[in-house]
Design a protein that fits this description.
Elements lengths: L1 E6 L11 E6 L6 H6 L2 E3 L7 E3 L2 E5 L7 H9 L3 E7 L7 H14 L7 H8 L6 E7 L4 E11 L3 E9 L8 H15 L4 E6 L15 E3 L4 E2 L2 H9 L11 H6 L2 H8 L8
Parallel strand pairs: 9-10
Antiparallel strand pairs: 1-2, 2-4, 3-4, 5-10, 5-11, 6-7, 7-8, 8-9, 11-12
Helix pairs in contact: 2-5
Length: about 260
């Protein structure tokens, strides 16, 4: 991959000159290679990716916890089916329901009709996991996915009927997806970013990992520290306690997969 550095807002008072790190795939590389390196898609066309603190679940040997089993029981009677995007009927009724859900849960304008149409026509959505209430004969939710099996599934967006919120259907859909892809022999299910304590629900799975900027970590104490630390404090790699826990800069450099030869 080629790395690009997109300058963002500096803080001169603290000598912080941030860059967003983008990755552009090179010939022979696939999206799975970039997600494994800590990047998520920055373009629906999968031609640009951004480095971030993302969450993934290793699926080999995964077993549900007691909390996972409780959530799965709340979805008794709900079934799911994996549908390739080319076989999925993206009807006006489904689109309207998804946009209404997005406005309610994400806020007005976060998911526009144009953006949703672009996603549904782009390679970043390869499959959909469709959930139905068999007894009621109705569709209750859909997860938009990118699959590159067996290496990964990326659980991108999920939309569901808010009438089922008391059954924790959103958490059920995610937990069911972990179980589904584990049973299919997948390696990892990627669940998006984690930059607030509200996003810790994504970490409710055994063995969950997050990308900390230089390696995948299973240390939930470290993740909670990153979520709770004062953003106006020292730069993370200038934070003495964090450096000591990571083995100093030498330890961090040794753990990093990134090499940037100067040519």
């Amino acid at each position: 991959m080629k790395l690009l550095f997109s300058e963002t807002t500096p803080d001169y008072s603290r000598y912080l000159y941030p860059y967003v790190i983008w990755a552009v795939p090179e010939p022979g590389e696939t999206p799975a290679d970039l997600l494994a390196a800590g990047f998520l898609p920055a373009s629906p066309q999968l031609d640009r990716f951004y480095l971030c603190r993302q969450i993934r679940v290793p699926l080999a040997g995964w077993t549900p916890s007691s909390e996972n089993r409780r959530i799965l029981r709340k979805g008794d009677g709900l079934t799911c089916a994996l549908v390739p995007r080319g076989e999925f009927a993206y009807t006006p009724e489904r689109k309207a329901a998804w946009l209404a859900y997005a406005a309610e849960r994400f806020g007005d304008g976060v998911m526009s009709e144009q953006r949703l149409d672009t996603l549904m026509a782009a390679p970043v959505i390869s499959h959909l996991l469709v959930f139905r209430d068999t007894a009621a004969g109705r569709e209750v939710g859909t997860a938009l996915l990118f699959l590159q099996e067996p290496r990964l599934a990326f659980y991108y967006y999920a939309f569901y009927d808010l009438a089922y919120a008391d059954r924790s259907v959103g958490m059920f859909m995610m937990t069911a997806a972990v179980k589904w892809f584990a049973e299919r022999g997948g390696a990892h299910l990627h669940l998006g970013t984690c930059y607030s304590e509200r996003a810790l629900y994504k970490a409710q799975f055994a063995g969950v990992e997050f990308f900390n900027g230089f390696r995948w970590s299973t240390d939930m104490k470290e993740l909670k520290h990153l979520l709770q630390r004062d953003p106006a404090g020292p730069h993370l790699l200038a934070e003495r306690g964090f450096l000591e826990e990571q083995g100093g800069l030498d330890g961090i450099a040794a753990a990093s997969r990134f090499r940037c030869p100067l040519v």
